[in-house]
Design brief:
Elements: H1 2-28, H2 34-37, E1 57-63, H3 67-70, E2 96-97, E3 100-104, E4 110-113, E5 117-120, H4 126-139, E6 152-157, E7 160-166, E8 172-176, H5 183-189, E9 202-208, E10 211-217, H6 222-226, E11 238-241, H7 253-278
Parallel strand pairs: 7-11
Antiparallel strand pairs: 1-3, 1-6, 2-3, 4-5, 7-8, 9-10, 9-11
Length: 280
């Protein structure tokens, strides 16, 4: 009888450990299969260039050998994010440092640029904005007194924010510089998922062309991650990681009962082991 009880306890413990090990490998490991798929390097298909959106902060610099011609475009007394008609005056709400002027894209997706007036930049990349301004400056656009044949324009998005919510170690709003931020990088910056966080599906909510769209990604599946349109994050994206069903809210009846049950089970096992030892 004693041996039977001991064997039952040992078998139960072994079965639990085996089951737990199988679950952890299958449901927690990221990018499963990537070690074989990418043995041969593959070309990256998606482009990570951000599309300019309202409320973005743009840094625009104009350079040329003729400093007199570009002075109006790098002068903070002229450059502003506010109103002003084509060829009119401008507010001084934007700053200029070392030849770099800063603009805020308004809710209509426009910036107020010196001499040329209001320009629609929403939906464009920074590269496209630079090309547009270079062409306007080199052609004079019928407004500027002289064309700037060697004009070079550089445009950058100063920063953008994403929101990481749910079962991660450090949820919250995070601001990033540069224009390349992947889903994996954002999760890494948030401290990674908790052990109770579900690897699939991870939800990404995005605003595109005035509409709200959602994407779901399985972090365990390398194809789901790398081929997702949401792999490269964009401004104002929201990433949500849902908790595993086994998680209970602290303070709830279910959570309390679970804790009490676990404690009692541990006590029963300990007492059984003690009785068996003393009866030998």
């Amino acid at each position: 009888m004693k041996k039977s009880v001991t064997y039952v306890l040992l078998l139960a413990l072994a079965a639990s450990l085996t089951f737990t090990g199988c679950i952890s490998d299958k449901h927690i490991i990221y990018l499963q299969g990537a070690e074989t798929v990418y043995v041969v390097p593959q070309k990256i298909q998606q482009a990570f260039e951000l599309k300019i959106q309202p409320d973005d902060q743009l840094a625009i610099s104009v350079t040329s050998q003729d400093q007199e011609l570009i002075a109006p475009f790098n002068n903070n007394t002229l450059i502003g994010s506010g109103g002003g008609e084509r060829g009119g005056s401008y507010s001084s709400t934007a700053n200029s440092t070392a030849g770099v002027a800063y603009f805020t894209v308004d809710r209509n997706g426009e910036i107020a640029f010196p001499i040329f007036g209001r320009l629609k930049v929403q939906g464009m990349t920074t590269r496209e904005v630079s090309q547009m301004l270079e062409e306007m400056l080199r052609n004079g656009d019928g407004v500027h007194d002289a064309s700037i044949k060697d004009a070079i324009v550089s445009t950058k998005i100063m920063s953008f924010k994403v929101t990481i919510l749910g079962d991660v170690k450090n949820p919250g709003v995070q601001t990033f510089t540069g224009e390349r931020l992947t889903l994996l990088e954002a999760i890494g910056r948030s401290g990674d998922l908790n052990s109770s966080g579900k690897r699939a599906p991870v939800l990404i909510v995005r605003e595109e062309d005035g509409q709200r769209v959602t994407y779901e990604v399985d972090l365990r599946d390398q194809a789901s991650v790398f081929n997702s349109p949401a792999y490269y994050l964009q401004q104002n994206d929201v990433v949500y990681v849902s908790p595993n069903k086994s998680v209970r809210v602290k303070g709830s009846t279910a959570y309390t009962l679970l804790g009490v049950g676990s404690t009692l089970l541990g006590m029963v096992i300990s007492i059984t082991s003690l009785v068996l030892s003393l009866s030998r």
